[in-house]
Amino acid sequence: MRIGIIGCGQLARMLALAGLPLGLKFSFVADTGSDTDLSCVEGLGLIAPWQAGDNLADLYDALGQPDAFTVEKEQVDLNLLHGLTAFCRFAPSVNSVAHCKSRIEEKQLLAQLQIPSAPFCYGIDLNQSAKELGLPMVLKSLHDGYDGKNQWLVKDDRQLTQLAASPPQTDYLAEQWVAFDREVSLIGVRSTTGDTQLYPLTENVHHQGILVRSIAPAQGITPLMQQTAEDYMRAIFDALPYVGVLAMELFVVGDKLLVNELAPRVHNSGHWTQLGAMTCQFENHLRAIAGLPLGATQAQGATAMLNLLGTAAAPREALTTNASLHWYNKTPQPQRKVGHININACDHAQLQQQIAQVEARLSR
Ligand code: ATP
Ligand code: MG
Ligand code: MG
């Protein structure tokens, strides 16, 4: 069975690395506009370039005629996805990717399912938005946002006046700034038969909009909060309907959960599952789209994931007995995600010690 992946980044790489032991073959579509660095997936399968207007039958042949397609990112040309469904299955559905690609469609889906998210305004004047939401607020472009890019924080009246005079030259929504206690995410997977498996909530630490660290299971999470997050995800699974891994980022405010955003794919905050769960998110995504039974998602002990941002070379010397390194083989650039280290321990106290060891080695 051959799986085609739209995109050539680290998520495509780790999907392939998880799928090769299952006997799956892989092909990668390189969007000539955005997938400029193919080194992540070189040697892992067939790679074919694509740009708008290309003949899709030729593309499908060049990819070795996959049995199913999936995506490693939501910022994709929906016409390409639609076109490929003429040749074989695509998971999650085009509709699912479309909803997560656009921040406003995502917000509308959440509202329709009565899933709480941060209050927002769309299509109204900035001063009016500020009146309704209060300051600080954040403007987020509807498309092409990742790692906090294409966002504008409006802290005070001075910044509001500045932005109102020259608003972003892109379609955006304004969102209330949430004074959250912490950020968590839920990674879940739904099979073609509707079976679902959910991982425990993961705590995520961001720096300047970029994920730097995840800890799973998140601490201080009541069974009710886990249940509530799972209910939200199941509602989304059923509404779309969905096949594959879905990631849901949430803000924790007191004992309340607000959904920040969705990603219709494997997710950086799920990388810990490679070391800390019976079945990792990558394998479960493949099992789902290949029509196989899903694997168990319980956490084994406590696990941390440390992102490597802009690191020049694979820091193998940081490895300890409890750590594993995933190097993406990308060209390093400042703040670019080039790898991660997973660290596993029997409990959170031991995990903190293990993290300190790895961090000390990283900073040598
Ligand atoms: P990703 O790389 O996760 O796709 P993104 O560019 O889509 O990121 P968001 O997840 O919307 O961006 O925002 C990035 C981070 O900025 C969040 O994880 C959070 O730390 C902070 N943030 C975003 N929106 C808000 C908000 N309304 N209130 C408080 N913090 C926010
Ligand atoms: Mg995002
Ligand atoms: Mg995010």
UniProtKB/TrEMBL annotation:
Gene3D superfamilies membership: 3.40.50.20, ATP-grasp fold, A domain, ATP-grasp fold, B domain
E.C. number(s) listed in UniProt: 6.3.4.18
HAMAP family, sorted: PurK
Descriptive protein name: N5-carboxyaminoimidazole ribonucleotide synthase
Chain sites annotated for binding ATP: 103, 140, 175-178, 183, 206, 260-261
Listed pathway(s): Purine metabolism; IMP biosynthesis via de novo pathway; 5-amino-1-(5-phospho-D-ribosyl)imidazole-4-carboxylate from 5-amino-1-(5-phospho-D-ribosyl)imidazole (N5-CAIR route): step 1/2
NCBIfam families: PRK06019.1-5, purK
InterPro entries recorded: ATP-grasp (IPR011761), ATP-grasp_carboxylate-amine (IPR003135), ATP_grasp_subdomain_1 (IPR013815), PreATP-grasp_dom_sf (IPR016185), PurK (IPR005875), PurK_C (IPR040686), PurT/PurK_preATP-grasp (IPR054350), Rudment_hybrid_motif (IPR011054)
Catalytic activity: 5-amino-1-(5-phospho-beta-D-ribosyl)imidazole + hydrogencarbonate + ATP = 5-carboxyamino-1-(5-phospho-D-ribosyl)imidazole + ADP + phosphate + 2 H(+)
Family: Belongs to the PurK/PurT family.
Species the sequence originates in: Shewanella algidipiscicola
Subunit structure: Homodimer.
Keyword terms, alphabetized: ATP-binding, Ligase, Nucleotide-binding, Purine biosynthesis, Signal
Function in brief: Catalyzes the ATP-dependent conversion of 5-aminoimidazole ribonucleotide (AIR) and HCO(3)- to N5-carboxyaminoimidazole ribonucleotide (N5-CAIR). Catalyzes the ATP-dependent conversion of 5-aminoimidazole ribonucleotide (AIR) and HCO(3)(-) to N5-carboxyaminoimidazole ribonucleotide (N5-CAIR).
Boundaries of every ATP-grasp domain copy: 107-290
Signal sequence residues: 1-18
